Amino acid sequence: MRLRTIGLILLLAACSHDDSDMATSSSSAPPPLPSGALASLQAEVAFPNLTFSSPLFITHAGDGTDRLFVVEQAGRILVFPNDPSVQMTDVKVFLDITAQVLTDGEQGLLGLAFDPDYKVNGHFYVYYSIASPHRSIISRFTVSADAHSADASSETVLLSVDQPNFSNHKAGMIAFGPDGKLYIATGDGGSANDPDSNAQNLGVLLGKILRINADGSIPNDNPFASTAGARAEIWAYGLRNPFRWSFDRATGQLWAGDVGQSAREEVDIIAKGGNYGWRVYEGTLFTNNDPMGTVLNDLIAPILDYDRAAGQTVIGGYVYRGPGLPGYDGIYVYADFGSGRVWALVYDATTNTAVSNTEVANVSLISSFGEDEAGELYVTCFDGKIRRFRQM
Fold this sequence. Notes:
mainly beta; four-stranded antiparallel beta sheet; 2 helices; 26 strands; globular
């Protein structure tokens, strides 16, 4: 059974409810922190006068203006001042590509990233779905002479990813790493059980984290750049639907939430060339669902996975590096769409393990996390509101 929310067959609802015969195993989440070790968080409406249509992401341009940009699934990017008193009349349409975006199911305008040199070159990048032929597109646009409006005619397509004729598992997050390269997440292409074995196939771009240069070329140091039969864009593989992920501002580690099928949700730290197991494994659960008999001797296990008693669709978050939440520095904050639970995960880099995982808030209908320029955390929600975390 697939969850449907507020009348839309949206990406987070359908991702983790495919029909499957797999049994649910017990939770492997680490124990919570001692009571009082972390202050609980409250997700307050950050901009009471603003409401968006199916917002999927919020971010900033890194240009010193402290503006915020919201991605709407239908194909618009909106920009506004980071001011609690902002009005709808202050919101500008930065880019509108609704005429070319396919929004069926988990498809749509899914990702936005600003060039590290945006203040100089005005370049930004988007990830969206199109219908004919069925593909995911990663394009570069340029801002116009008006700082609040992009030049819609400036589109340069950097990468086109062929998609099977399913409406789910399209991933969509894009972001620049500390190395200045553009990282891109793709899902396995959809349906249930990865029917085409895409995630383990290095010859296709689905079920992967990809890495390209800002001009669309392929870095020579990508792990499979010299592997016969492999797509050179691949950075890591064996992923089901890593819808939201982020880089730690301090360490550069890539943290991903990979949405599960019917048993496990997982949090991964993505490494160069890493294999994260799908569809042979769902989290730490062996699926017995791989007719190719793939042997995963090099499998990288999740930092944490959890079962359906805790939630149904993981929403990858951020390692917190802002000034406003004392005690949270270096802690990974993430959530679950189905249960609304928001957790704070303490990670030990020395042992590469999750030390503790504490529920610190509950927020309904979270579609994504995001940061402002200072590193404060926000969430977009399917009620159309943007929320910001405060300590209680």
